[in-house]
Amino acid sequence: MALKTTPAAPASAAATSPRLSVKAEQFTESVIREMTRLAIQHNAVNLSQGFPDFPAPAEIKNAAKVAIDADINQYAITWGAKKFRDAIAANFLRTQGVSVDPEREITVCCGSTEAMLSSMLAIINPGDEVVVFEPFYENYGPDAILSGASPRFVKLRPPDWTFDPDELAAAFGPKTKAIILNTPNNPTGKVFERAELELIRDLCVKWNVFGITDEIYEHMLYDGARHISLATIDGMRDRAITINALSKTYSVTGWRVGWAIAAPEVTGAIRKVHDFVTVGAAAPLQEAGAVALQVPNSYYETLARDYLVRRDRLLGILTAAGFRCFKPRGAYYIMTDISAFGFPDDVAFAKYLVKEIGVAAVPGSSFYQNSADGRAHVRFTFCKKESTLQAAAERLAKLHAK
Ligand code: GLN
After folding, report:
1. Per-position DSSP letters for 43-62, written without gaps between them
2. Phi and psi (nearest 5°) for 41?
3. Which of 36, 69, 132, 157 could be 49's S-S partner, Cβ–Cβ 3.0 to 4.6 Å?
4. pLDDT digits over 44-96, tens only?
5. How many angstroms separate the alpha carbon of residue 248 from the centre of ligand 1?
6. Cross-strand partners of 214
């Protein structure tokens, strides 16, 4: 699942040290974050890790500065500052029409990453299974291991990343505790349609299962795609654990502020886990988050329009360089097929690309359980300013399809 470039501990240390956690031994460091380090090392244009290289909105940065100056510098309430939770609830009502109680149904976490793991730790028992669409965002693999869940993978198949309803149904059973959904999807750009969500709902109801839904790319939609939150599907209101964050929508991935929305009893469990894992997310940044969630609609319209321009720009660059691109309808990644370049696999290609061509991308295998399934794929991100995309275009022009 991951590139193993971290040197092993010296034999002498290994022989004398106590045994490490079996869970921690089952996964490697993140390939996505490793690619960023390789990009820095090789002075490459970084189209690997999904973080914007352009500024966050001034209004939101100012709100954070004001909060620090106003001495909002001590712990917020462990499950989130009231003002911020109120804004999250108002936002969910405005965008998806779902009314939630900020006092009993929201937990603010350190990014959607913690929201996902705390949610899983809150609901998983030994022997439980979770259904995961594959390719999947890398974190869900280690999340399953850390929480003790056994993943059951269901393939999304290119070019449209559709799934076989029978394969999905077969992945559910008496041991299933949850399905993990990510829509709009990283890495494929798929936006799940209502009919697909209803199929998922039918299975969740049939097997009495939670739907953990990572909706962090909700505002990055193209070609008329519409984001439908799983919680809005009839019967899912109290089964859905909806995860989101400030990171992508407001270009503040380093702030680490996210949240989980779930029914009161589930939220009670998530809050307990969260409390003992991190105590709470950064207090002044939650104040700024309350401001962010109240920006006018025009902000989201501009965001989507700007990302559409970047998507089309990168599609053009990659296609001209010889990649076969799977056009995303949402999120800010492009999955590509690299068969034309004649490399043995995605890792060899990604290493060549970062070292020799000077562009960093993520090997497709990091999104699959079996690396062979991702060997023909590489993922690029387009959440970058025009000058970065232009630099990538110049470097990729040196690449030759065979
Ligand atoms: N979600 C982003 C990506 O897929 C960033 C991952 C991370 O490093 N947290 O690239």
Report:
1. T-EE-SS---SSPPPHHHHH
2. -60, -40
3. 36
4. 999 999 999 999 999 999 999 999 999 999 999 999 999 999 999 999 999 99
5. 10
6. 182, 243
Question: Which of 299, 289, 248, 253 is closest to 85 using CA atoms?
Answer: 289
Alpha-carbon distance of 192 to 211, in angstroms, equals 14
pLDDT in tens, 187-207: 999 999 999 999 999 999 999
pLDDT of the residue at 15: 65
Long-range pairs for 397-401: beta carbons < 8 A, 24 or more residues apart: 397/320, 397/321, 398/357, 399/321, 399/322, 399/341, 399/353, 399/357, 400/322, 400/341, 401/321, 401/322, 401/340, 401/341
Q: Are strands 362-363 and 106-109 parallel, antiparallel or unpaired?
A: unpaired
Distance, CA 5 to ligand 1 centroid (Å)?
19
* pLDDT for residue 12: 53
Nearest CA to ligand 1 atom 3: 50
Amino acid (1-letter code) at residue 382? F
Q: Report the residue among 253, 256, 366, 377 best suited for mutation to probe ligand 1: largest number of ligand atoms under 8 A from its CB.
A: 253
What are residue 149's phi and psi, to 5 degrees? -90, 150
Question: What pLDDT is stored for residue 2 in this prediction?
Answer: 53
Distance 49 CA to ligand 1 centre (A): 5
Question: Which residue is listed with tokens 């008329």?
Answer: 224
Per-residue DSSP letter, 353 = I
Euclidean distance between CA atoms 323 and 358, whole angstroms: 16
Please, what is the end-to-end C-alpha distance for the chain in angstroms?
27
C-alpha to C-alpha distance for 20 and 9, rounded to whole angstroms: 12
* Residue numbers of the chain with a pLDDT score lower than 50: 1, 3-10
Nearest to 295 by CA among 61, 111, 65, 80: 61
Identify the pLDDT of residue 5.
Answer: 39
Q: 339: CA distance to ligand 1 center in Å?
A: 25
Please compute, for residue 211, the number of CA atoms within 13 A of its CA located in the half-sphere on the CB side: 28
pLDDT at 174 (0 to 100): 98
